[in-house]
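Q: Hi! First time asking for a complex rather than a single chain. Here are the components, and I think there are two in total. Is that enough to go on?
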Amino acid sequence: MPGAGGAECYPVIRKIDTISSNSYLIRTPDALVLIDPGGLAEQADHLISVIDECRKERYIPLVVFLTHAHVDHFLSLLQSSSLTDPELSVIALQEAGVIALREGDRDVTQAAILGLEITNIEIGLCLLSRKGASTPGIPATLTFPNGVTIRTVRDEIAGGSGAPIQREHITIGQGLEIDIFNTPGHSPDSICLRLGRMLFIGDLLFAASPGVAGIVGWSQDALLQSIDAIYSLVCGNEVDIVCPGHGRVISAATAKTMLVSIRKDVLTLGGIEELNKERSLDTATFAEECLEHVSELFTIMAGRLYYVSYVIEELGEADMAEHLATLIRSDTVDELLDSFSAFSEEYRSGKQQPIHLALKAAHVMAKIERSFDGAALGRIIDPTLVSRTGRLLSDYTTTLRGFSPPTESSLQNISSILEALIISNSVPACSDDDLLSSADDNDAFVQVLLARIGTPPLLKDVEVTFECPDPMLVAPIDLDRFCDLVTEILEDLVGTGAEKIQITVYKSGSFVIITITGTGCIRSTSEQETGFMRRACHNAGGSLIYDCSGATRRFEITLNPVQ
Amino acid sequence: MEITTATHDGATVLTLTGRVDTTTSADLEAAINQQIEKGNRKILINFSGVTYISSGGLRVLLATAKKLRNGDDRYALCCLSAEVHKVLKLAGFTSIFSIYPSEGEALAKW
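A: Yes, that's all I need. Here is the structure of the assembled complex.
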């Protein structure tokens, strides 16, 4: 370890997950220091075997530091008595974490959201206590049953944004020096530790990530202050290597860049909703709805592209057909959807927690988003299929981050919007005139031809009737989301074989009501799909009732009244 | 996904149960190709036990359509669940394939 007087570090670096953190075991002649034993019993067993190896020639006392009391950083302690036995080790934790553990707080420790149980752990050394702040500069020396002597001195250092941050300077035995910095935000008890030129920063780099930001105990103000302080520290000349609680070890320069970017993210998180067990459950439900719908939209888009490719190949344009197949990486997306489906099965059988499903969905959606060329696709197949998929992915990310999907409500004439939707879904995307006028330019002609094949009118084979006795009815709606919703309903009816669709708009009291009824359908909508549409209707500016009776299916949208 | 094969009046009926996903669409393609290699060129695929089809499954259906287009060949799908019907309809596939509500109605046309 650079600058640490011959200390050696044994890092246990794990693939990033919510189950267990990295661990860092440090050996000096005076003591062994373990930073974050992690969340898994096997990880603790492994660390104990290394500790035993270090003690082969003579006993060396152990001090365990927790960068914060989240279960993925400490749960293994509960399963390994040799790490918690006061005769063998001292456990050190920031004061807020000591209180959380003493009270068995399942929310602050994240045990509740991860479906885990915790029991009391005896903490030997309470770090950065409020009481200690009142005696800056006065050293205190403590001797523990495991034979270690720890000297502590409190002070504060200038934070990057001007506000000072609390520091506790610790000397273990004769010469192991550690600086402990109070860096709340990710949790109330988060600390960073500096040994020599290495800085151990716990989860500071992940504090703005979706599914992490907003967890119980998270604080935007505290986090900004902590980021500024640690940024200032890594910009100085005292740190070369930064060791995060998850993922690989990085250089101070990389940490600097990451902290700047994280700070920007944190600034956007004002008003974030708390990520507790209840919200994780809601998000998991939305994740399943979204992925089921994304799966359907994607399969339709890929199928539409196959269809265009098939027709183009029939016309003797094999090269063009081959090019079309590159616009969606279908195999990749299919594999992602299959992996989510398998994960969802595990969740339903109780093997996974809601937050795990929510995070898995985010991971899958991010990869799906990179697997198709939306702009090129939208020029060939129905562009609303592409835009709706994009909006869904974006809405999910927004929800996971702790915000409501953005909506823009404005007063709209409902009758004219519906009429325009019916017309646009009844005629080809490219008219005969478009086709003729492009005939002199080969590239333009191919593009029009592709769009004409790839975007058949949705209502082409369906008898649609529209009734709106009062053509001046207005209501406040999010126009794009409303059009998406009506298109979804029409697609659902057409896709399930409706022969006739009746759309009626009328006013009841102060509410504008739209009914869309399909007859000759071959099924009822599944619960999840209806849930998805209800949510979509809420975001569009109304509420949805669905009713199915035999081959007739009826959607009733009640729009919010004009305020 | 399970695939059971039966023969009716010279037609081969492949009945599918389960999900037609990345893995199983390859199994379906192999099962269809095996029949075509044996010279069985009247193929009906019964989807009565399928509620999910991936884009890989759609690709297999289309690839089969390309293989079975000689004068005496027959190729159709039947007993589609609403979920599968919706995907095929909105993808534009219903204009390529013959689709029937039941096995009997499909075979009666052959």
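A: The two ends of chain A are 66 Å apart (CA to CA). Let me know if you'd like any chain examined more closely.
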